[in-house]
Amino acid sequence: MTADDTFGRLDDDDYPAYTMGRAAEMLGTTPAFLRALGEARLITPLRSEGGHRRYSRYQLRIAARARELVDRGTPIEAACRIVILEDQLEEAQRINAEYRRAAESGNPTAAE
Fold it and tell me: pLDDT tens digit string along 37-59?
């Protein structure tokens, strides 16, 4: 969910991402909200060659879910933890489904 120094840079032409202002506009929120999500370690903005913060579509989806929870009264730190756990659960369910399909087809190593 978060970008590190190795993968945290992008070229504008190579990766669809949005500036902080555009991302906030798309979410119907403010750049301060996106910064708060970063401080809570939910999303870490990617960086363009010029050093500008950019957000991927995946990060916007995560931020939108956090925004829904915050709008319902959930504190931002708790909302971020909930979103992280939901994302991990979704990934675990996807992996489990892959292994089940592989086992049913008689090829248990196909999911690897």
Answer: 988 888 888 877 777 788 888 88
